[in-house]
Structure formats: C-alpha cells, structure tokens
Design goal:
69% helix; globular; mainly alpha
Length: 253
C-alpha cells in the first residue's frame, strides 16, 4: 500500500510517469525505487516513535536525493535545466529533492496509509486540514505536467483505480484498519535486509541508467554534502524525539 501510494502521489500526480500503473516495466522499476525508500526510511522513523515534520522532512530529502545517483536528474535532467551551476541543476535540487519528494513521495503516503490503520493520528495538519486546497494543488500540478486532457484523464483514472483497489483489499479483506502501523512497519533486521536491497539497487541503476549524465567530482561533492547534512539532521532529530531506540541492528551489523 505504501509503495502504491508513493508512486501515485509522486509520479502520477506530477505527470512525471502518467502511465505508472499501465506499463509493466515502469511499475516494476518505480516499485523498487519508491517501495524500498519508503519502507527503509519510514521504518526508521516509526522505530523512533511518532513521526513528526522534524524527522520526516530530512528523511524525505534523503529519499529525494535518489534523483542524483539513480535518475541523474540533479546532475543533468533529460529536459532543459533552467539553471545549472558547476554540474548541479539548481532548480531540480530545490523543487524535486527538497520539496516534491519529501512531501509527495514520503510524508503524504505515510499519512494516508496511517489513516487506514488503527492509529489515525494526523501529523500533516497543513495538508489534511485543507483537503480541497491540496486536491486543487494536485490537479493543477498534474494538468501542467501533461498539458493534455486525454493523458490526464487516463493517468488519473488508472491511478485512482489502482489506489482504490489496494485500499479496498486492505480494509475489507485484510481488515487493515484493525492493525497498529508501528507493528506493520519494518523493524530491526527487516530494515537491515531492505537497506541492503536498496544499496544494491543504487549500485545497479547507478551504473546502468544514464551513466553519461554523471558530472565531475565537484558536482558530486555537493550531493555528498547534502547527504551528510540531511543524514546528520535526520539522526539528530531522531535522537531528540526522546523515544527508546529500536535500531540495534545498526550497531550490531
């Protein structure tokens, strides 16, 4: 469910991959990218207690930085970059890695998923207290992305159909709203296994997907700096939550 929601809000709503659920190759690739990221990072967040913006945002930026070494968009997008400085696509870093992915790929899917479990606590009040504003925002973004009413209709209908089917199975067949989300999220060694799979995906796609788009060492050092800063911020904010740490595998392994 988390994977489907992450793909829907990140790729379908942005019209980056309007037919994300209609093309098998797209669906498999996106499921690996979005599923592994949201399970690993989301599992870590929930292992430290209740999610909050302070822990979710830096984790979401770490999520969004996949656009550097997997798609290479932060170095050289396949569209014309509005501003490229030293091999870094500035606009893409600010909008995609630091805004779109933290919100739409990570925080919104986690919040929606939590609403369909026993714990319906709202932690994204600025979005879910104004659902109509959020819906209009999504509609405008999708329309601007496709600029074609036919593509928009097929994309949104297919996306909504998949989401509704998954949520329907979750609620009426699996009785998912009777489960605690903390018990459902990966924990301990499970996160460790998923993290290894995520690392392997980075290695494989990093070498096979648009390797020619990687820029020189200075551009990459900037991305490394973002990883270090937001990784440190994520770790610091997790430590400050005051909850007991359930991540002993990080020390053991």
């Amino acid at each position: 469910m988390l994977t489907i929601l992450s793909i829907f809000f990140a790729e379908v709503i942005s019209a980056s991959t309007p037919y994300a659920f209609l093309r098998f190759s797209n669906f498999i690739t996106l499921s690996l990218i979005y599923g592994l990221h949201i399970l690993v990072l989301g599992g870590i967040v929930y292992a430290y207690g209740e999610p909050s913006f302070k822990t979710l945002y830096p984790a979401g930026v770490l999520f969004g930085l996949y656009e550097a070494y997997i798609t290479k968009v932060l170095f050289h997008p396949w569209w014309h970059a509005a501003l490229n400085i030293g091999g870094i696509s500035v606009f893409e870093v600010l909008t995609i890695a630091m805004f779109w992915h933290p919100l739409m790929s990570f925080m919104v899917p986690l919040q929606v998923a939590q609403m369909f479990t026993k714990d319906r606590k709202v932690f994204l009040r600025f979005v879910f207290e104004h659902p109509l504003v959020f819906a209009v925002f999504c509609g405008v973004i999708e329309a601007m992305g496709t600029q074609n009413i036919g593509i928009s209709v097929v994309s949104l209908l297919s996306g909504f159909l998949v989401v509704f089917v998954v949520l329907g199975v979750w609620i009426f067949i699996l009785l998912g709203d009777s489960y605690d989300i903390n018990a459902l999220m990966p924990q301990g060694k499970e996160i460790g296994v998923l993290a290894i799979m995520l690392l392997l995906m980075y290695i494989v796609l990093g070498f096979l997907w648009r390797p020619e788009a990687l820029f020189g060492i200075y551009a990459q050092m900037f991305i490394w700096g973002l990883y270090v800063f937001f990784g440190w911020l994520f770790y610091r904010n997790l430590k400050r939550t005051g909850y007991s740490i359930k991540m002993n595998f990080l020390i053991k392994y």
